[in-house]
Amino acid sequence: MMAVLAGFHKTLLGRLTGGTCIIGLGLLCGAAAADDPYGDWIGTLVADKGHNCPVNTPSLMQITPKHMVFAPETGALLLRGKPDKATQHYHADLMMEDANHKPLPMVFEAHPVGDTFEGIYGTPECRAHITLKRPESRAWKNFIGAD
């Protein structure tokens, strides 16, 4: 049964439903983020401590087999990294300089949890967490295979 469920998201019906299926009497299943991490993920950061956290609008994480990007508040700053699907390690960072010419690191770490990613964003002034989900438009991309 598990093999059937694991392979469902690769079928036409799985693509049409975004990897979510209904079997029997309402049993729902979805493509796990660990199995299918590639593509766009969106969520809004929630401040844990500090100030100047980018929490006002959604943030975006994009994962490809060789690259990943995290854009806080979907803005101009891009934290870049190299994903490691085998170890489920998703890390991106950006090193800038502040007004006093001191290093200003920005770091993002994420890991899959079910059909979402849980992440932590940090700078010297802010620490925030985020739950990232597939965008609503994902079902159409699944259908045409344009990830």
List keywords for this structure.
4-stranded antiparallel β-sheet; 11 strands; single chain; 5-stranded antiparallel β-sheet; 3 helices; mainly beta; disordered N terminus; 147 residues; 42% strand
Can you describe this structure?
The chain is mainly β. 13% of the residues lie in helices and 42% in strands. The chain contains 3 helices and 11 strands, in the order H-H-E-E-E-E-E-E-E-E-E-E-E-H. It has helices at 2-8, 12-16, 138-144, and strands spanning 21-23, 27-29, 39-43, 46-50, 59-63, 68-71, 79-81, 90-97, 103-113, 116-123, 126-132. It has a 5-stranded antiparallel beta sheet, with no helix packed on it. The longest helix is centred in the N-terminal third of the chain and has 7 residues, at 2-8. The relative contact order is 0.20.
Summed up, what is this model?
With 147 residues, the protein is mainly beta. 13% of the residues lie in helices and 42% in strands.
- Tally of helical runs: 3
Main sheet summary: 5 strands, antiparallel
* Gyration radius, in Å: 17 Å
- Head-to-tail CA distance between termini: 27 Å
Structural class of the helix and strand makeup?
Answer: mainly beta
SSE topology:
Elements: H1 2-8, H2 12-16, E1 21-23, E2 27-29, E3 39-43, E4 46-50, E5 59-63, E6 68-71, E7 79-81, E8 90-97, E9 103-113, E10 116-123, E11 126-132, H3 138-144
Antiparallel strand pairs: 1-2, 3-5, 4-11, 5-6, 6-7, 8-9, 9-10, 10-11
